[in-house]
Amino acid sequence: MIEINDVSFSYEGDNALNHISLKIEDGETVALMGSNGCGKSTLLKLINGIISPDSGSYKFDNQEINHKMLQDAKFGKSFHQKIGFVFQNSDTQLFCSVVYDEIAFGPRQMGMNEIEVDKRVNDCLTLLSIQDLKNRTPYHLSGGEKRKVAIACVLSLNPDVLVLDEPMNGLDPRTQRWLVEFLVQLSKAGKTLITSTHNLELVSEISNRAILFDEKHKIVADMPTEKLLEDIELLKKVNLVDEYYHSHEGNNGNGHKHFHDHN
Ligand SMILES: Nc1ncnc2c1ncn2[C@@H]1O[C@H](COP(=O)(O)OP(=O)(O)O)[C@@H](O)[C@H]1O
Ligand SMILES: [Mg+2]
């Protein structure tokens, strides 16, 4: 479904992706991991067609994706319907004055009639249990509420692939737990999930496969998430856990609960 072949990308000379190749199949749950600045957000932007490779190629459903293709309105629409992006910072994603219009934005862009739009918006409000936010102003919501609205906006187009950039960031533990369960349900419903995260405690619940970047913007591991979490030396090497990491494996049989996260 997603095929990235030898892609490099730089921001004004600053390298952010260094010869990246990977394939993601329909229905997979993948976590992108690595320390700050390693290129996770850049790769997610590329997957969503916000940026195009400087070299190499990106194919989605066997179709090459680049700026030229996305300028074609019809193609752009169908691509954006299939893949939804939840930004790291919900404030950059939410721009309408009312939650209802925010969630209706995508369906309206796709040219749906208002009856269909209304159905979609209400379905999403219900799915996320945020019916009471319908007439609120996104700007005034809490961080957790904003994240739910941002997710509702993306789900309103019922995409096959959901891309989430550090979705746990800034959420309280209870909302993080809610989000984990919600993502698990989406995965069970057949969605492909691609998530960037620093959260070593929750990552194994939202992904089966982990792709690890080093600080040179290269992929250094692509393996089952559980396996990566056991490889402390590798996690140290890419600066994801620090020297003070200590496992409590002997005490409670669960070493993952005691990671010292850098962020
Ligand atoms: N808009 C931008 N302009 C210039 N450099 C950027 C921009 N966004 C990211 N970078 C740089 O690209 C590299 C990768 O960043 P990013 O993909 O945001 O990393 P991550 O999401 O893993 O923290 C970093 O060196 C970062 O400073
Ligand atoms: Mg990032």
From TrEMBL:
SMART domains, A to Z: AAA
One of the record's GO cellular component terms: ATP-binding cassette (ABC) transporter complex
InterPro entries in the record: AAA+_ATPase, ABC_transporter-like_ATP-bd, ABC_transporter-like_CS, ABC_transpr_CbiO/EcfA_su, ECF_ABC_transporter_ATP-bd, P-loop_NTPase
Entry membrane topology: Peripheral membrane protein
Localization in the cell: Cell membrane
Gene3D superfamilies: P-loop containing nucleotide triphosphate hydrolases (3.40.50.300)
Presence of keyword Disulfide bond: no
UniProt protein name: Cobalt/nickel transport system ATP-binding protein
Source organism per UniProt: [Clostridium] fimetarium
